[in-house]
Design a protein that fits this description.
The complex is a heterodimer of chains A (about 280) and B (about 475). Chain A is of the alpha/beta class and about 280 residues long. Chain A has one domain: Rossmann fold. Helices cover about 45% and strands about 10% of the residues of chain A. Chain A has 13 helices and six strands. In chain A, helix 5 packs parallel to helix 10 and helix 11 runs antiparallel to helix 12. The longest helix of chain A has 24 residues. By secondary structure, chain B is mainly α. Among the domains of chain B are: about 180 residues, no CATH class; about 150 residues, no CATH class. The longest helix of chain B has about 35 residues. Classes of the chains: A alpha/beta (about 280), B mainly alpha (about 475). At the A-B interface, helix 1 of A face helix 8 and helix 18 of B.
């Protein structure tokens, strides 16, 4: 009996020995990374580290509503879009911007535009951060850019340290345990506020003007959105008060039929006048 | 619980360890045997109840009635009385089977025939998994007791364990009481060689199921879902793929079942014996689903007179056996059509007295078959493939359209193959299976490579390679075994 059990264990070990090491040490290619959920984030990270030779007027960052208007996967004549999704948090937006400006410091864009729907500012690291933030922005590369608050929030993600293992990077795995939240939902999170201020300083450092614009909003969500906007107007931090005021003014409401869900426009319905304003 | 599920991967080692741990307890052999049987019964009910516990009641009723009828048959003084008990048990078991499996079909067909709305008469109940398998096992017991081929069991636990033994409960092999029941009445000793052989057979069964059957299913389902628009060559390839799917699925299940039983010191009967290497259709039927074909032979065909009657009765008996075999698979005209198709192919052989022409293994004592044998195998295979089209179709019309499509829409074109990374590993796996099974065709099972490959290191590499191949190319999301529905 002992002999039988040990024989089976040896075979299982032998099979694992053949299967696991190549999985662990296999070279993670761009294709492997881009084929997982949220491949647009990987593409945005890659683009943010790529030198652009043509003259760029506008650099666009944004959440998934911004991505619906300017997908990061697309190439434009005088625009570079790094818009991907909200789950990367405002810290992720900052990392993308920092990468891009550092890589293209001798070919800076004329203007930076951040495109967000009003609900995006409340992200303070949630369950999606493991897959959409920790995997594309590895700890070993970005930890030095963490604020103490972000550091604390990341540590609250179960098994956060496993996110950068090669065989996890290429999967959609995410721990199915909720990330504990410390504060009640609010219109703008501490994390967003911190990193908006960092974005503000960074753009000043490089001397590139920036604006934060709202993406089109469904007209039937007006009352809910107005509450959020009121909160944003109440931000008293001198660094971004003016930017928030401009953001609130940029909110435009469109008929709900143009949207395929609460916030995303259907691609054939993107209003041309809105794109003209941005461009 | 499915053999290829995560649950079973935990269930089997746990049950195995507890089962043999009982064997090591210092108690009397009788008590040990009783405890092991109780444990097998509980484990089997957990295995079955994992799917739907309510249907455990049906198994318990079938088991109890068959056990009781065995005792009553033996106790009855007059032959007529014992026959009455046997018939009562048959009627009860077939009644349950007919209610769950055939009632709705026959009522709705009757309604259609006479233009009556039968909607309110339909039961619309779920078919309990494996009901045809354990019902037939229970029936054979009472018939065997009546025929005095076996003593009735007084041990109710052993009898219940015999009916519900989890490795073969839901998809066979359909065991005979004469083979399996005595094994539950005698002490079992752990045997290293037998257990290793069991693991070998489990590995082979999983390979056939996960790599071959489930990958073939992807292709087959795709083609069948759009068969009116597919080319003839694609339809033909899908028909061939289905032949390997159903073989990989069912013989894979049987291998896992037989291998698992070996781990518990129980020997089950062989269910497949290289059916696709058959030289004619009669040989195919001696090698395909052996436990069912021999069941029908012993309990239906021979009592009807078998082949030792006049020609017209031979014709009748042949049709009866194939039609019953067809309808056993399910309540659909396609199964009857499939049975009729095989009866028509079998009939000339039996009438000419050539149905037992090939009772040995093909190319016995040789490595390769002769050209003549190869041609016979190929022809028989394609005859069987055509039968599987009828079997796989949802209606007879669909089967006919499919067969027509093969010959009328670009049979000689290049078939659609999904993608090379899909088709190449699958084709290699099928080829590997055929090679392994060919070289082991004379052995007790198709993966008895310890008999055909003397170097242990070669065998070890093969085991590991199969496991690795399963991990990389196996399909782990196509779970259902085809024969569960029967």
């Amino acid at each position: 009996m002992k002999r039988f059990i040990s024989t089976i264990c040896i075979y299982i070990f032998a099979v694992l020995l053949v299967v696991v090491p190549p999985e662990m040490y296999k070279i993670v290619t761009d294709a492997d990374l881009e084929n997982v959920e949220g491949g647009e984030v990987r593409i945005a990270v890659k683009k943010s580290k790529t030198r652009t030779n043509r003259r760029i007027k506008k650099l666009i960052l944004g959440d998934s509503t911004g991505h619906a208007l300017y997908p990061s996967e697309n190439t434009y004549d005088s625009i570079v879009s790094l818009a991907c999704n909200q789950a990367i948090t405002m810290a992720g937006q900052y990392f993308l911007l920092k990468n891009y400006l550092e890589t293209n410091k001798d070919n800076l864009p004329t203007e930076i535009i951040l495109l967000f729907t009003p609900g995006t500012f409340d992200n303070d690291v949630d369950i999606f951060a493991y897959h959409y933030f920790l995997k594309p922005f590895p700890l070993y590369e970005y930890k030095s850019l963490y604020t103490p608050h972000l550091n604390e929030r990341i540590k609250s993600i179960p098994f956060y340290w496993t996110a950068n293992l090669p065989f996890i990077q290429t999967t959609n795995y995410t721990p199915s345990i909720a990330v504990p939240t410390e504060v009640e939902s609010q219109s703008i999170s501490e994390l967003s506020l911190e990193y908006l201020l960092k974005i503000d300083s960074l753009t000043k450092q490089y001397g590139v003007p920036y604006s934060i614009r709202s993406t089109p909003v469904r007209d039937d969500r007006k009352s809910r959105v107005e509450d959020i906007l009121q909160d944003l107007l109440n931000i008293s931090d001198p660094g971004i008060t003016e930017k928030m005021r401009e953001y609130v003014q940029s909110v435009e409401y469109y008929p709900s039929e143009l949207f395929f869900d609460d916030v995303h426009l259907s691609s054939p319905n993107i209003p041309a006048d809105y794109l003209e304003e941005v461009e | 619980m499915l053999f290829n599920s995560i649950e079973f991967a935990f269930f089997l080692p746990l049950v195995f360890l507890i089962y043999w741990a009982i064997g090591y307890v210092k108690i009397s052999d009788t008590l040990k045997l009783r405890l092991q049987n109780i444990f097998v019964l509980v484990a089997s009910y957990v295995f079955y109840g994992w799917w739907d516990w309510r249907f455990l009641i049906l198994i318990a009723v079938t088991s109890f009635c068959s056990w009781g009828s065995g005792l009553l048959i033996a106790k009855a003084n007059a032959k007529g009385k014992s026959k009455a008990w046997m018939i009562a048990n048959i009627v009860l078991n077939l009644g349950i089977l007919a209610t769950y499996k055939y009632y709705d079909f026959f009522v709705s067909e009757f309604g259609q025939l006479f233009g009556i709305n039968t909607d309110s008469l339909l039961l619309r109940i779920i078919l309990p998994v494996g009901i045809s398998f354990y019902t037939f096992q229970a029936l054979s017991y009472s018939i065997d007791v009546y025929r005095k081929q076996i003593e009735p069991s007084k041990d109710i636990i052993a009898f219940f364990a015999f009916i519900a033994f989890f490795p073969q409960l839901v998809a066979g092999p359909i065991e005979r009481a004469t083979n399996l029941l005595p094994q539950f009445l005698t002490n079992r000793q752990f045997c290293y060689a037998q257990s290793v052989d069991g693991m070998r057979q489990i590995l082979w069964g999983l390979f056939k199921k996960i790599v071959i059957a489930d990958n073939c299913a992807t292709y087959v389902d795709l083609v069948w879902s759009s068969y009116p628009t597919q080319s003839g060559s694609t339809l033909l390839l899908a028909a061939i793929m289905f032949s390997f799917q159903i073989y990989g699925d069912f013989s894979g299940y049987s291998d896992i079942a037989i291998g698992t039983a070996k781990l518990f010191g129980i020997k089950l009967m062989r269910n497949f014996n290289n059916p696709y290497f058959s030289r004619d259709i009669a040989e195919f039927w001696r090698r395909w689903h052996i436990s069912l074909t021999t069941w029908f032979r012993d309990y239906v065909y021979i009592p009807l007179g078998g082949s030792r009657v006049g020609k017209w009765k031979i014709v009748r008996n042949t049709f009866v056996i194939f039609l019953v075999s067809g309808i056993w698979h399910g309540a659909n005209w396609t199964f009857l059509g499939w049975g009729t198709y095989h009866a028509l192919l079998f009939l000339p052989l039996i009438l000419l007295g050539k149905n037992r022409k090939y009772t040995n293994q093909v190319a016995e004592g040789r490595i390769l078959p002769t050209w003549h044998e190869a041609a016979q195998i190929l022809v028989t295979f394609f005859i069987v493939v055509t039968g599987w089209i009828i079997f796989r179709a949802e209606t007879i019309t669909q089967a006919w359209e499919y067969i027509q499509g093969i010959f009328t829409r670009d049979l000689l074109s290049v078939p659609h193959i999904i993608s090379k990374p899909f088709i190449i590993p699958l084709a290699l796996a099928i080829l590997f299976m055929l090679v392994i099974e060919w070289f082991n065709r004379a052995e007790s099972h198709n993966f008895a490579i310890n008999k055909t490959i003397s170097q242990q290191w070669v065998r070890r590499i093969i085991y590991i390679a199969i496991a690795v191949y399963m991990i990389y190319f196996g399909k782990f999301d196509y779970n259902q075994f085809i024969y569960f529905q029967f």
